[in-house]
Design a protein that fits this description.
- This protein has 157 residues and is mainly α.
- It has one domain.
- Helices cover 83% and strands 0% of the residues.
- Helix 2 crosses helix 6.
- The chain is rod-shaped and about 90 Å long.
Length: 157
Amino acid sequence: MDIETIQTFVNSQASTSIAGFLIIIVSVIAINSQRKTARQKASLEFLDKLSSKLLIESAKFLRDYHKKIALITTSNTTKYKELQEKIEPILNYFESVSIGVRIGIYDRRTMFLSRKQQIIHTFYYSKPYIEEIRKRLDNNCLFENLEWLAKKSHNAK
């Protein structure tokens, strides 16, 4: 192959098409990489909100009282209503995380690496509470995304 053949090819329509195709492929790869990085960053930023005092207290309350959660859930006394309100921040937080993971805003792998056990424990510790609330309100959709993510987390390796 001589220089003249190479120059003819470089100046041809085929070389322009190949170059255009390569630019498109590189652009698609770069965009996908940026999306993944953005999801991971959003995941980490949202997980950082877990350090708020309200969420920490809610998580500790659920951890400490999960064996009494059925009693707390079914009681109608004022004392137990106040206890029920302590559970809700952590459930609402992880429901939001779960929705974000499910629709692709947050990166599932990042969530699993960072909070897998906490997601699983939050759902299973509060399961009697969730079931009672679903029954009372006749709405099986309550905390369905948290349940979905907890099951996915439990099955993830």
